[in-house]
């Protein structure tokens, strides 16, 4: 019997070529790539709610968003935080409210199922804090349902335990206009008079206990007592002080409105900024208000067959990652050059963003995640873009690479790791305040972002002994889980974190045979699925469901294969099985692997993301790297990404 040993190689080449050419077809004329970024039902629901709040309805858009919301309702009757996820109360309450605002009959089967699911789990009164703020604006719950957040916080000195700069960038941009709303307590116009009282088991006006200790810690009990005190004091704040605080909050967010890209370039902050300006009496034709509203509309996308509203856009991230994958897949210099030139022009060199509070002497030099977000460059994006530029043409892009490295060095936290947007943003006691029931108030250093920074610095020539790199490696060692994996803060989950760390350690010149690294390798091998792929569910962010996997996914399989190859395992039989799984996995007509699963995270256990580009980028990179390593003599991965 003759076995054709060339068949797998031919199939591999074919898939790589097809995937590469498909990405080339998606490249924009100016050189960049951008893919849809999908969250759960809350963002399109809030878009509909905002239109009714302002009495600026868009019936055609509403109809499309409502169609999308209906399409992602799960069998349990409610809406999850990610594909095939569990019921989530807040997502379901907002989805139900949005559909009712859009005209859905509450006796329609899907609405009845949603209502029954809400009732079975304690009623809408079990919604999270942010949902209760939204419901308070519509008069569905009293304002005492939400924690007291006095706008006077804007006047707090730097040493005060709770200030706007002690919380993360995303919280900062959301909270500043929200403080104005909480102070003024405006009421939604709600022209159709839609109510959702039927979702509550107890009438909201009769509920006496709304707030809970979010962590169970004694600190949470203290902050609950403080909330009671503030609730008595807050209405009697001196008018002059309140006006000064409102003015400071307004100045804070209007300085950062960011043109048509919007406040913080994220939907919740943009929506809050619009409502705050309306509450303050801005005329409808005020340029800032008009532009802020337009920034929200720009988040609408045709999507994959249905229109939805994105939480933000991801062109810098998409372009940096795609350029790296395309270079490994043999893309032309012309396409790579165009993308790198586009990235070079997006570097933030003049604006000193909020990070300057902790690093006043560091020069700007980072990249944002979105098209424009100058006050909030992203450490992770900066490292990825720096690697792409260096790999494309180190001489041509020497200056932007050097500025990026300088900024990355300056953004290292005192523990040796890197956060996504801020330095030493890790005042853990803030997680105990009632407002923080979502657990996403802070931006502490994480393994995945830190790994990318180590990878970038190592790639451009920093030695392992360099103090910044050495401290980064030490952070990664200390942050490793007891089972050998690394936690994934921005991607799901331990596969993402472990892939990131192994890439960085290899790039930095660590001995990949060290016991702590071998434990990570064994963890990846141990968690391969029976079909040859890898997959991790969003539920793994709950400790009791740490190893849950519903299905193998293309992006997570690619991460596992890339991580194993970085550890020197290109010839391992399980790597071969992973490559075979990717080679044979179904792909759509546009060249992307089929991946309905959410494999990324905004905030663990609260907000998940599906990058539509991941299913095109990472499988291509993994397959191209595998092909190249199998054909090489050294079998060593040269890069950290």
Q: What's the CATH class label of the largest domain?
A: Mainly Alpha
CATH architecture of the largest domain: Alpha/alpha barrel
Question: Which consecutive residue ranges, at least 5 long each, have pLDDT under 50?
Answer: 1-5
**Portion in helices:** 40-55%
Helix-strand topology string: HEHHHHHHHHHHEEHHHHHHHHHHEEH
Number of helices: 22
How many DSSP E strands?
Answer: 5
Rg over C-alpha atoms, rounded to the nearest angstrom: 25 Å
Question: What does this entry look like structurally?
Answer:
It is a single chain. With 641 residues, the chain is an all-alpha fold. The chain has helices at 6-26, 42-54, 59-71, 89-101, 109-120, 129-137, 169-184, 218-233, 239-255, 267-279, 287-297, 315-328, 333-345, 379-393, 398-410, 447-459, 467-479, 494-507, 515-526, 554-566, 573-584, 614-631; strands at 37-38, 300-301, 308-309, 600-603, 607-611. The strands form 2 sheets. A 3-stranded antiparallel β-sheet has the order 1-5-4, with no helix packed on it. A two-stranded antiparallel sheet has the order 2-3. A hairpin with a 6-residue loop joins β2 (300-301) and β3 (308-309). α12 packs antiparallel against α13 and α18 packs parallel to α20. The chain is globular and about 75 Å long. It starts with 5 loop residues before the first helix and ends in a 10-residue tail after the last helix. Mean pLDDT is 95; it is low at 1-5.
């Amino acid at each position: 019997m003759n076995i054709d040993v060339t068949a797998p190689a031919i199939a591999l080449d074919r898939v790589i070529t097809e995937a590469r050419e498909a990405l080339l077809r998606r490249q924009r004329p100016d050189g960049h790539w951008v893919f849809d970024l999908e969250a759960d039902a809350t963002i399109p629901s809030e878009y509909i709610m905002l239109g009714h709040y302002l009495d600026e309805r868009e019936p055609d858009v509403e109809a499309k968003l409502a169609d999308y919301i209906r399409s992602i309702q799960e069998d349990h009757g409610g809406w999850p935080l990610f594909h095939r996820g569990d019921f989530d109360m807040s997502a379901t309450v907002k989805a139900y409210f949005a559909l009712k605002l859009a005209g859905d009959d509450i006796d329609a089967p899907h609405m009845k199922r949603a209502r029954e699911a809400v009732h079975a789990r304690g009623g809408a009164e079990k919604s999270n804090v942010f949902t209760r703020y939204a419901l308070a604006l519509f008069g569905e719950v009293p304002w005492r349902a939400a924690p007291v957040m006095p706008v006077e916080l804007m006047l707090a000195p730097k040493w005060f335990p709770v200030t706007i700069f002690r919380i993360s960038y995303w919280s900062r941009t959301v909270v500043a206009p929200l403080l104005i709303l909480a102070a003024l307590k405006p009421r939604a116009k709600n022209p159709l008079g839609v109510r959702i009282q039927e979702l509550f088991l107890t009438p909201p006006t009769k509920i006496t206990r709304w707030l809970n200790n979010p962590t169970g810690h004694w600190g949470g009990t203290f902050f609950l007592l403080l909330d009671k005190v503030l609730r008595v004091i807050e209405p009697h704040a001196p008018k002059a002080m309140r006006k000064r605080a409102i003015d400071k909050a307004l100045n804070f967010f209007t300085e950062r409105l960011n043109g048509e890209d919007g406040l913080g370039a994220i939907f919740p902050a943009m929506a809050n900024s619009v409502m705050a300006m309306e509450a303050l009496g801005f005329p409808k034709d005020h340029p800032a208000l008009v532009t802020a509203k337009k920034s929200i509309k720009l988040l609408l996308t045709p999507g994959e067959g249905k229109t939805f509203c994105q939480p933000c856009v991801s062109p810098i991230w998409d372009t940096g990652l795609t350029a790296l994958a395309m270079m490994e897949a043999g893309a032309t210099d012309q396409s790579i050059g165009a993308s790198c030139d586009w990235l070079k022009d997006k570097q933030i060199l003049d604006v000193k963003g909020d990070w300057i509070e902790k690093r006043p002497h560091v020069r700007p030099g980072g990249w944002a995640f979105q098209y424009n977000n100058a006050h909030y460059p992203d450490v992770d994006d900066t490292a990825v873009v720096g690697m792409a530029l260096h790999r494309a043409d180190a001489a041509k892009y020497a200056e932007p690479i050097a500025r990026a490295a300088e900024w990355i060095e300056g953004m290292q936290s005192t523990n040796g790791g890197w956060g996504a947007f801020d330095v030493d943003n890790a005042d853990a006691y803030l997680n105990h305040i009632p407002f923080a029931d979502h657990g996403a108030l802070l931006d502490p250093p994480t393994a995945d972002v830190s790994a990318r920074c180590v990878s970038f610095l190592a790639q451009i020539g920093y030695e392992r002994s360099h103090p910044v790199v050495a401290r980064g490696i030490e952070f990664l060692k200390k942050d490793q889980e007891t089972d050998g994996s690394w936690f994934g803060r921005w991607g799901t989950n331990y596969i993402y974190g472990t892939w990131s760390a192994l890439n960085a350690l290899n790039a930095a010149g660590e001995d990949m045979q060290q016991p702590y690294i071998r434990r990570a390798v064994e963890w990846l091998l141990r968690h391969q699925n029976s079909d040859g792929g890898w997959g991790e569910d969003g539920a793994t962010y709950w400790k009791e469901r740490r190893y849950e996997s519903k299905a193998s996914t293309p992006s997570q399989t690619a991460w596992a294969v890339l991580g194993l190859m970085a550890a020197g395992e290109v010839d391992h039989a399980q790597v071969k099985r992973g490559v075979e799984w990717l080679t044979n996995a179904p792909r759509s007509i546009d060249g992307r692997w089929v991946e309905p699963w959410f494999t990324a995270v905004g905030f663990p256990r609260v907000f998940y993301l599906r990058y539509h580009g991941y299913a095109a980028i990472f499988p291509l990179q993994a397959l191209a790297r595998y092909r190249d390593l199998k054909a090489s003599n050294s079998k060593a991965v040269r890069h950290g990404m």
